[in-house]
Amino acid sequence: MDLIYSRMNQTLTIPGEQVLYALLRTPVFARKPLEERSEIINGLIKNQEKRERIQMVLSKLGKSGGNFVVDLLWDERPARNKLAFLYPWILLLIPVFVIWGLSGENLGWVGLIALSLGNAVIHYRTKRKFAEDLPSIRYLGRMVKCASRLSSLPDSPLDAYMTRLKSALDKVSSIVPKTALLSMGENNPLYEYLNILFLIEVRAFHSYLKLMEKHVNQLRDVFETIGFLDAMVAAASYKAGLNESVEPELTDSTPSLDIENVAHPLLEKPVPNSFSLRTGGMLVTGSNMSGKTTFLKTIGVNMLFAQTLHFCLAKRFSSSFFNTLTLIGRKDNIIEGKSYYLDEILTLLRIIQASRQDVPCLCLIDELFRGTNSVERISASAEVLLYLAKNNGLVFASTHDLELTRLVADAYVNYHFQEEIGEHGLIFNYQLRKGPSETRNAIKLLRHVGYPEEITGAAEQRIRGDKG
Fold it and tell me: Same domain, yes or no, for 46 and 175?
C-alpha cells in the first residue's frame, strides 16, 4: 500500500497527503459516503477548469513548513505563560517613562531602558519556546487563508465541504494576522527593537495559543477539509490515468465476491483474472513465481479501493462490505524479538478473532505456517482454513501443499496458476485456472538459474525414489 500511495500521491499540501494516506487505510462500510466521493472524483475528472482552480489555490499553500502541523493540532501544544495577562499593563509603562524622560527626569529614561531589558528577556525566552513550532504556526496561518479562498469557489458536489470551511472560518479567521506577526521583521534591526519593546511577537504568540485552545476543533476541520479536497483531486488524477476502472457494486448482503477482469495497480502489463465466490473460500495452488501471492494482493488492494475511493481496477466488481485482513509477507522482527513463526501465528490469531465479528471478513492468507515442519503445517493449516470458512466471511489462501486441496475440499474451491516450458525456460501466463495444480517447478528453477546438475539431478532422483 505504501507503493500504491506513492503513485497516487499527487497532492499539493501537507493536509492532502496526510488525509489521502488515512483514506486508503480506513475502509468505509456504507454506500452513501462512498457514492459522494465517487461523485466528487468523477466531477473533477470531467471538469478540468474546476480541478485546476482548486489546484491553483492548493498550490499557494504547498507543503513547505507544514511537516509538523499535525503535531500542532493533535498533540500537546506549548503552555501559555500564566503571567501573560500582565503584558498589556507592562506596555502602559512605556508612555509613562517617555513622558517622564521628556519632562527632564532622567529616571524616566532609566526606567525605559530597564523596561526594554526586561522585555528583551521575555521576548527571547518566549521566542525559544515557539521557535521550533514557528514554521508550523506560519503554515497554519496560510492554511486558514487557503480555506478562505477555497470556500468562495462555487461547486454543488462540494457544497457540504465549503459550508464546513465557512463555519470553521467564522471562528478562526483571526489567526492569520497573529501568525503573520511572528518573525515578520526578521533581519530588520529597527523592527526587532520595536518588537522587543512592545512585545509584538510575544503577545501574538500567546494570543495564537489562546485561539488554539478555544477553537482547535475548527482548525482541525479546516485541516481535514482542505486535505480531503486535495486527496480527491489526487485520486481523480490517478483514476483518469487508468486504462480501465469501474465503480463497485457494494451490498450489505451475505458474503460474496464476483469480479471480472481484476488487475493489480502496480503492474505495467497486468493479466486480468475473473472469479466468483459466495461461500467458504478459494484455495490457490501453483508453482513458485506463478502469481499466487500477486493474485491475493490484487484482491486485497481492489477491495480497499472499493471501500475507500469507490473505484476498482476491473471490468466489473460486485461485493459485500468486508473487513479485509491479510497474512502476507511476514518476517522476523528483530527489534521486538519475534520470530517469523511467532509473528505469523499472532497475526493469524487476530484474523481468527475478527472472523467471529458481525462485519464479514475477507481473509487473504499466503502460505500458512510455512515456518514449521510439513506434518504440523498441513494439519494445522487444514483446521484453521476449515474454521475460517465456517465463520462470517470469505477466505482466499495460497499453498504449495497439494494435500491441503483434498483436506479442505468440502469448504474450498480449488484454483491454480501454471507455467509452461519454453525455449528460454519457464514461461508464466498468470492466468487463474480451475482445479488444483498438477505441476512443480522448484528444481526446474534451480536448474534454470545455473545450479550444478549434481544437485538438481540428484534431487529429482530423490523425488522419484531412486535415491535413498
Answer: yes
Distance CA 458, CA 372 (A): 25
Secondary structure class of 428 (helix, strand, coil): strand
Is 24 among the domain residues? Answer: yes
In the structure, what pLDDT confidence band is assigned to residue 313 with cuts at 50, 70 and 90?
A: very high
Q: Kindly list the distances between the CA atom of residue 85 and the CA atoms of 88, 177, 207, 210, 281, in Å, as whole numbers in the listed order.
A: 7, 20, 10, 11, 67
Give dist(CA 13, CA 262) in Å, integer.
32
Structure confidence by residue, pLDDT tens digits, 123-151: 777 777 776 777 888 888 889 999 998 88
Inside any domain, residue 447: no
Q: Which class for 263: exposed (0-12), middle (13-18), buried (19 or more C-beta within 10 A)?
A: buried
**Residues 35 and 167 occupy one common structural domain:** yes
> Which tens digits make up the pLDDT trace of 187-201?
667 767 777 777 777
Cell of 276: 466468483
State the average pLDDT over residues 389-400: 91
Strand order in the sheet with 393-399: 323-327, 361-366, 393-399, 281-286, 412-417, 433-434
**260 lies in the same domain as 214:** no
Distance CA 282, CA 70 (A): 42
DSSP line for 71-93? HHHHSPPPPPPTTGGGHHHHHHH
Instruction: Give the three cell numbers for residue 296.
Output: 491475493
Q: Does 449 map to a domain?
A: no
Domain identity same for 205 and 116: yes
Identity of residue 118: G
Domain region containing 279: 249-437
Closest listed residue to residue 208, CA positions, set 169, 176, 255: 176
Alpha helices in 173-309 (DSSP H): 175-181, 189-198, 200-240, 292-306
Domain assignment present for residue 454? The answer is no
Q: Convert the pLDDT of each residue in 331-348 to its tens digit.
A: 645 455 456 778 888 888
Residue 462 has pLDDT above 90, yes or no: no
Same domain, 150 and 223: yes
Do 236 and 373 lie in one domain? The reply is no
Q: Residue 251, SS3?
A: strand
Task: Choose from 88-102, 174-188, 293-307 the range with maximum mean pLDDT.
Answer: 293-307
User: Is residue 253 located within the same domain as residue 234?
Assistant: no
Q: Give dist(CA 462, CA 468) in Å, integer.
A: 7
- How many CA within 13 A on the CB side of residue 120? 8
Query: In the chain, how many domains are there?
Result: 2
Q: 209 with 298, same domain?
A: no
